[in-house]
Amino acid sequence: MPDPAIPEDVERFLAEHVESAEQLDALVLLCSSPDRGWTADALSQALFSVPQSAAKTLERLRARGFATSDDAPTPTYRYAADGVDAQRVERVAAAYRANRAAVIRLLFARRDPVRSLADAFRLRKD
What we know:
single chain; mainly alpha; two-stranded antiparallel sheet; 2 strands; globular
C-alpha cells in the first residue's frame, strides 16, 4: 500500500533505482555535494559503513548513471545525474529529508525478508 507521505514518483524511483538504505544515503550525500569527490573510504566514514560496501555502492551508482569515476587506482566518484534524472534525485532527497523513516520503511517493505536474512549472513570473498 502506498505511503501518502511519499510522492508516487519518489516511490517509483526508489523501486527502479535503489537497492538499499546505504545506496540511498550515498545518493543523497552525493547529490547534496555535487562538487565533492568521494572515495570509498570517505563515503564509508560518512555513512558509518565499511569501505568494501561503500565501494560497491559507488560502483552501483556509477553503473546507473548517478555518479562518475576518475578510474584511478583509488577511484574518486562525483555526482553525475543531470536533466530529468537530477530532478528525480532532488525529489527523492527532499522526501528523504522530510520523512526519512517513511522512505526507509518503503525500501524495506519491498524486500523479500528471507533473501534479506540470507544476504546478511552471506560470506563473500572480496
